[in-house]
Amino acid sequence: MRRPAGRQTPFNHAGHLLPTFEIMVVVTMFVLLIVCANVGNLLLVRSFARRHEMTVRLAMGAGRGRLVRQLVTEGLLLSACGAAGGMLVAYWCRHALVLLFPGDAMYLPGQMDSRVLGLSAAICFVVTLAVGLVPAFQTRHLALADTLKTEASTVMGARGRAWFRSSLVVLQVTLSFILLVGGTLLMQSLRKIRTTSPGFSTTRVLDTWIPLAAAGYDAPRAKTFQDELIQRVRALPGVEAAAYARAVPLGYGSFSSTPIAVDGYEAQLNEQPTAEYNEVSPDYFATLGIPLISGREFTRADDENAARVAIVNQTMIARYWRGRNPIGQRLQVKGNWVQVVGVVKDSKYCSMDEAPRPFFYVPLRQYFSKEPDIHIRTTQPLQTVQTALIREVRALDPNLAVYEMITLQEQVERSTSHELVAVALVALFGGLALLLASIGLYGV
Question: Residue 186: helix, strand or coil by DSSP?
Fold first, then answer.
């Protein structure tokens, strides 16, 4: 079974995805500007081609204001028809973008945003108004006698009047080039991100989740179930290690974060040290293959009745202990002093492109969670382990379900899916922009 909606991250809470969506908005605005410049250029060519007609109408007594209103009205009508058609296509295709993202991990409503539509319509209106006013104001400087002596003016007009159209052509080519170069840079960045080591094993480590809270489990019953299940899982054929963790690395959910105080560290003025942490069970680091540099891992003895302990990463040592050995030192977490018992290497926690950050781990039993993820290191295929896990869970409680099981490699790929979507969209829109610019060049 796939993970239920309760584990999905709402779109407006997925802060780590905002840069991707900002890129999409910028790319879309670029394409919109290219389209506006393209259509505007064609309208300018058409308007300048009608100079002889406008001159004749002026000579016959038509007012200049009436001609200006006609040109602007024609442009606005064309813009309104185009905007309406674009909104209709956007409405039909509103779910296409949503399908590009992993729906089991995030809730993206396929709805039209009135603010985006309003901004797009405003840009179309301003560009159309500008395009309509430029040829309209040209009629103010028409010499009726000189113009009537000639036949129709040329399509491109005089050299002095062509600068605006040339500027629009340059704008189209420039924006198209920016999109293509941006797509190339994003592709290189994505390739670099995907070849970066996350700091933990990904190929033979599986992850899943069992919703105990939804099944009505209280804390004591959940603790008993977790203890019995982990023993059964570790006894399965091919299982090398298994452990619980409240949050999965690179998941869409967030880690816990708290203000901290480090014994012996003097904070600067107005500095409030904070760090993220994860609640994990014994064998967590062995299961994920995170190297232990010094000290020890958590054990079953690190429960709610024992002294509180923590394991810190290398970046946290460098920032708060500055070369001193942290083993045996104290760290204050949520008002409680805990003792550092181990040091592990840095790894990726929230995204593959994040900078090293202070991070620490605490025992799950001392900061209990009823619905942690379960990680399993195994030599068996995923489907085999999932079938065995379902059997063990149902042996303990037939009413419980095991939700989707994936490898941590799949989790890594999902965490970079938004960058992949951004690259694909930039490449698509870059090609579209180049096509539109080519059409615009051909049209003039």
Answer: helix
Asked if residue 350 and residue 316 are part of one domain, the reply reads yes
Alpha carbon distance 345, 8 (integer Å): 29
Are 378 and 426 within one domain?
Answer: no
- Give the contacts of 185 (CB within 8 A, at least 6 positions apart): none
Co-location of 395 and 429 in the same domain: no
Give the 3-state DSSP-derived string for 343-399, with helices as H, strands as E and coil as C: EECCCCCCCCCCCCCCEEEEECCCCCCCCCEEEEEECCCHHHHHHHHHHHHHHHCCC
Mean pLDDT for all residues in the chain: 80
Looking at residue 324, what DSSP letter applies?
A: S
Burial of 68 (0-12, 13-18, 19+ CB in 10 A): middle
C-alpha distances out from residue 414 to 19, 220, 393, 396, 420, Å:
16, 34, 27, 31, 10
Per-residue tokens: 93: 């295709």
Question: Is 204 part of a structural domain of the chain?
Answer: no
Determine the structural domain holding residue 152 and report its residue range. 5-196+418-443
Q: How far, in Å, CA of 354 to CA of 254, rounded?
A: 14
Give the CA diameter of the chain: 103
Question: Is pTM beyond 0.90 here?
Answer: no
409 inside domain: no
Residue closest to 106 by CA, chosen among 426, 414, 440, 394: 414
Q: Which residues contact 244 (CB under 8 A, 6 or more apart)?
A: 226, 230, 280, 281, 284, 364, 372, 373, 374, 375
Asked whether residue 267 falls in the same domain as residue 395, the answer is yes
Beta-carbon-side half-sphere exposure of residue 240 (alpha carbons within 13 Å): 13
Residues 274 and 336 in one domain: yes
pLDDT band at 160 (very low <50, low <70, confident <90, very high): very low
pLDDT at position 4 is: 43
Domain membership flag for residue 345: yes
- What type of residue sits at position 144? L
DSSP class per residue in 232-269: HHHTSTTEEEEEEESS-TT-SSPPEEEEEEETT--PPT
How large is the average pLDDT for residues 404-417?
86
Residues 6+ apart with CB under 8 A from 95: 110
63-67, 77-81, 280-284, 412-416: least confidently modelled range: 63-67
Q: Is residue 407 part of a domain?
A: no
The answer to whether residues 176 and 234 belong to one domain is no
- For residue 152, give every residue at least 6 positions away whose Cβ sits within 8 Å of its Cβ, in sequence order, or none: 49, 51, 52
Amino acid at 177: F
